[in-house]
Structures are given as structure tokens and as C-alpha cells.
Write a structure and sequence with these properties.
The protein has one domain: Cytochrome c oxidase-like, subunit I domain (Cytochrome C Oxidase, Chain A, Up-down Bundle). Helices cover 68% and strands 0% of the residues. It has helices at residues 9-13, 15-19, 23-28, 33-61, 72-107, 115-123, 125-134, 153-156, 159-188, 201-232, 246-263, 266-280, 287-300, 316-328, 330-344, 353-376, 378-384, 388-418, 424-450, 465-495.
């Protein structure tokens, strides 16, 4: 692919500069996809740090058995808000930030399809985040029933639960608007000559993710609205005494919740599918099969939800159905992993920081995938349900998976965003510390779970002490590594560094590398030619 823009450099940096909004108005009223992408990324990093502090407090309490610092209620508030903030405040907005920045650049569009709606979808997030954090300071405190908000606990909580429901509604509306924008941009605004099957994989994974968001966010809205009416309006959707069923909430919630897991990983697959070919200096192996595998994962994600519910007393026939459909997800996922490895096979590999994070992702995400396959087996899951084995599994998918993919994408595209190269040594320091400490934190949790340590408890039996001390220390070191990344990689890179060429990576392909670094305020006002 090659592309050209009609804008000359003197226009971009000369007379055009005066037309750019400046100061606070540029950000508050932002309609440029790059500015809105930057807002999403700053917001997600902020929430990553807030959620990270809650994780550090959780691990502080679990350093030794017995109650050290927090009562069980406050501990469970930390656990619940850590999950909600990391999912809805850190991981999802980060991927939307990447989409805002890169989708128009990759498809040769001048901007996102609905610029003002794009602005609105971002500005719903900060007040929602404030509601979540402020719930700690109202009577009764934050929700303490887990991020899943299961009744009857969620019906018994104080006003912090109402704030959380409102926040979830706002974040869901933001996600739906963002998804509509991404779908319309990809389907209607691609450059001439860019057929769907010529699109970069990142655009494909986001197109499929956007359809997932539109399908499942209203389901979450339904679930929390029913909780709200049970709390305040006398309905009994989830109250058995009034003819309701608390298990029904789990069915509705996980019909949202399992596709949500793929919403948080499919864009990461897209990022990895951009990076591995670039640093292998050869095309992605099996492009069409990657597209079909992504679609297959999304479709199958709708028929596996009750694997979260094997201990709720479902019939054996249903257990078998959900067990086998869950195992089915391993096939398209295995296709992806095979294709990534095949892309690297006999490639001219180099291991700059983006590639390190991509290869690290490949390894640790595969561990998370295998432990998920083990949990899909109903009789095993009955033993491991609500133990630290489950905690290990989903943190391998979401921390070692989603977060590593986001870091890989950051290092890959940040020269295009800021116009500066990051410090390679510091990037590699960040990678190796992240890789080591994420494994030392979460791998021992598999053994804790196999030995029977339950999750969401502020206390534990003495025999679990050694592993908990190890994971707590490693978790703090992992957290400090991300603080290092923020203060010694991100902020210095925004302020300066070696000037980045238009195409800093030798093997990189795509329209985004045909515009200058940093990408000018307006790009592709005349659609580029795609060959």
C-alpha cells in the first residue's frame, strides 16, 4: 500500500496552524480524531493508576494472614471497584483511544464519521469515573459485592451502588456511540482501492469488536436497571420471595460479560497482528484466516456465557453444551497464535520494544488461554470456582494479554503520535520488569487456587502465606514498573526525544506511515491512492 496527501508541509505547519483550536477549547470541544484519541489515552492511563492503587491495597492486606489494615467490607469495596475501574475505565477506553487515533489513519479517512458524537462519547467517561471513585465517600461506602454486582448483595448495598449503576450506564452509552462511529468510519470512509479484505488487521478486529459492543452493552444496561428497580421501585426481578430469581441476573450479566472479555482482547489481537509482521519484515501469515478467526471468536462468544455458572445447579445437558462451546473458542484462537508464530518463522526478526511486548503477549496470553480451557471442563471448574485459579486465569488474559498488547501498540505508534522516538533502553527495562513481575504475581495464584484458597476474602489460612507474600511483593514491583513507564517513558517522550521519521520501523506497512511524524492535525483531506 502507498498513499499520498495533498497537504504540503508548509501548509500544515504554516497558515493551517492558525486554524487549529488552542488551549482548553481544543480539548473540551475536540472534534479531531487525534485529539479525542489522546483524551481517551490520558483518561485510561489515569484510571490504570487509580485501579492500580486499589490493587496495591488489596495485595497489602493479603501480604499476611489475619486482618492487617482494612476490615472485610472495605477490602471487598477495593476488590469490586478495582475490577470496574480497570475494565470500564482503563482497558476499554485505551483501546477506543487507539481506534480513534489509528483507524482513520489506517483506512485513509479524514476523520471519524461523527466528530461531535465522538466528543460526547469521550466526555461521558470522566463524570462516570468520578461517580465510581466518589462512591467510596458516601454513607455505606462503595459497592462491595464484586464487579459483577450479583444480587442479593447489590440490592442490599448503600447509595454507592446507585452511583455505580449510573456510572455503568454512562460508560455503556459511551461505548455504543464509539462503536457506531468506528463501524461507520470503516464501512463508509475507506480510501478508494481499500477493499475490506485489504484493511489492516487492527481495523478488522475493531470492526468486529464494535459490533460486539452494540450487541451486548444494552444487555448490561438491562441487568443494572433491573437491579435499580429492585432496589427502589418495589420490583422483584431477582428476589425469590417475590417470584424473581437471583440466578437470572447471572444469565443476563454473563450474556454481556463473556463477549465483553473478547471486546477487551480482540483489538489487542489487531495490534499484535500489525506489529509481528512489521518486525518480522514479511506479510502476516494467513490474513484471510485471521479475519475469519476473529469473526468466529466473536460469534462463539455469544453461546458460552453460562460457563461462569457451572455451580448454579444447571442441568447436565446445559453443562455439556456450555463446556463444549467454550472449548470451541480455542480453535480460532489457536489459528491466530499459529499464524503469528508462522509470520515470525524465517522472518528477518528484530526485537525493538514493540516486538518484545508482542512476543511477550504471545507467551503469556497463551498461558491464560490454556488455563481458560481447563476451567471450561465443568467438573474441574466446580472444584476451582471462585478460587485464586480463576483470578490467575483472567489476569493472565487481561493484564498479560490486553495490557501487554496496549503497551506494544503504544511503543509501535507513539513516534507517529508525538513525533519523537521513545528511549529504547527504558522501553526494554519496562518490558523485562513487566514480564518478570506479571508472571511472579499471577502464576503462583494457580497453585493457591488448586490448593483451595477462595477469592474475595480479606483473610486466608496460614498454609497460603508464602505464596501470598511472594505475589504481593511481585505485584508492588509490577505496579512500580508502570509508574516508571509513565514518568520515565511516556512523559519524556511527550516533551521531546529524537525526531521520528515518517516511517520509523523498516518493515511497517500501511497508510499511517505515509503521513509525517507527528501526524498533522488534518490528514487525508483528499483520499490517498491505495495500490
Amino acid at each position: 500500500m502507498s498513499g499520498t496527501t495533498t497537504r504540503s508541509p508548509d501548509y500544515v505547519h504554516g497558515e493551517g496552524e492558525a486554524a487549529h483550536p488552542h488551549g482548553w477549547r481544543r480539548w473540551l470541544f475536540a472534534t479531531n480524531h487525534k485529539d479525542i484519541g489522546t483524551l481517551y489515552l490520558f483518561f485510561s492511563v489515569t484510571m490504570l493508576m487509580v485501579g492500580g492503587v486499589l490493587a496495591m491495597l488489596i495485595r497489602l492486606e493479603l501480604f499476611q494472614p489475619g486482618l492487617q489494615f482494612f476490615n472485610p467490607e472495605l477490602y471487598n469495596e477495593f476488590v469490586s471497584l478495582h475490577g470496574l475501574i480497570m475494565i470500564f475505565g482503563a482497558i476499554m477506553p485505551a483501546f477506543v483511544g487507539f481506534a480513534n487515533w489509528m483507524v482513520p489513519l489506517q483506512v485513509g479517512a479524514s476523520d471519524m464519521a461523527f466528530a461531535r458524537m465522538n466528543n460526547f462519547s469521550f466526555w461521558l467517561l470522566p463524570p462516570a469515573a468520578l461517580l465510581l471513585v466518589a462512591s467510596f465517600f458516601v454513607p455505606g461506602g462503595a459497592p462491595a459485592g464484586g464487579w459483577t454486582m450479583y444480587p442479593p448483595l447489590s440490592i442490599q448495598m448503600g447509595p454507592g451502588m446507585d452511583m455505580t449503576i449510573f456510572a455503568v450506564h454512562m460508560m455503556g452509552a459511551s461505548s455504543i456511540m464509539g462503536a457506531i462511529n468506528i463501524i461507520t468510519t470503516i464501512l463508509n470512509m475507506r480510501a478508494p482501492g481499500m477493499a475490506l479484505m485489504k484493511m489492516p488487521m487492527f481495523c478488522w478486529t475493531w470492526l468486529i469488536t464494535a459490533y460486539l459492543l452494540i450487541a451486548v452493552m444494552p444487555v448490561l444496561a438491562t441487568a443494572v436497571t433491573m437491579v435499580l428497580t429492585d432496589r427502589h421501585f418495589g420490583t422483584t426481578f431477582f428476589n425469590a420471595a417475590g417470584g424473581g430469581d437471583p440466578v437470572m441476573f447471572q444469565h443476563i450479566f454473563w450474556f454481556f460479560g463473556h463477549p465483553e472479555v473478547y471486546i477487551m482482547i480482540l483489538p489487542g489481537f489487531g495490534i499484535i497482528s500489525q506489529i509481528i509482521p512489521a518486525f518480522s519484515r514479511k506479510p502476516l501469515f494467513g490474513y484471510a484466516s485471521m479475519v475469519y478467526a476473529t469473526a468466529a471468536i466473536a460469534i462463539v462468544s455469544f453461546i458460552v456465557w453460562a460457563h461462569h455458572m457451572f455451580v448454579t445447579g444447571m442441568p447436565v445437558t446445559a453443562q455439556l453444551f456450555f463446556m463444549y462451546t467454550t472449548m470451541l473458542v480455542a480453535i480460532p484462537t489457536g489459528v491466530k497464535v499459529f499464524n503469528w508464530v508462522a509470520t515470525m518463522w524465517k522472518g528477518a526478526l528484530s526485537f525493538e520494544t514493540p516486538m518484545l511486548f508482542a512476543v511477550g503477549f504471545l507467551w503469556v496470553f497463551t498461558i491464560g488461554g490454556f488455563s481458560g480451557l481447563i476451567l471450561a471442563v465443568a467438573p474441574i471448574d466446580v472444584q476451582l470456582q471462585d478460587t485464586y485459579y480463576v483470578v490467575a486465569h483472567f489476569h493472565y488474559v487481561l493484564v498479560a494479554g490486553s495490557l501487554f498488547a496496549l503497551f506494544a501498540g503504544y511503543y509501535y505508534w507513539v513516534p507517529k503520535w508525538t513525533g519523537h522516538m521513545y528511549n529504547e533502553w527504558r522501553g526494554k527495562f519496562h518490558f523485562w520488569n513487566s514480564l518478570i513481575w506479571v508472571n511472579v504475581t499471577f502464576f503462583p495464584m494457580h497453585f493457591l487456587g488448586l490448593a483451595g484458597m477462595p477469592r474475595r476474602y480479606a483473610d486466608y489460612a496460614a498454609q497460603f502465606t508464602d505464596f501470598n507474600m511472594l505475589t504481593s511483593v511481585a505485584a508492588w514491583l509490577f505496579g512500580l514498573t508502570q509508574v516508571y513507564w509513565l514518568f520515565f517513558v511516556v512523559i519524556p517522550n511527550i516533551r521531546g526525544g529524537a525526531p521520528a521519521p515518517a516511517k520509523p520501523w523498516e518493515g511497517a506497512e500501511g497508510l499511517e506511515w505515509t503521513v509525517p511524524s507527528p501526524a498533522p492535525f488534518h490528514t487525508f483531506e483528499t483520499p490517498p491512492a491505495v495500490k
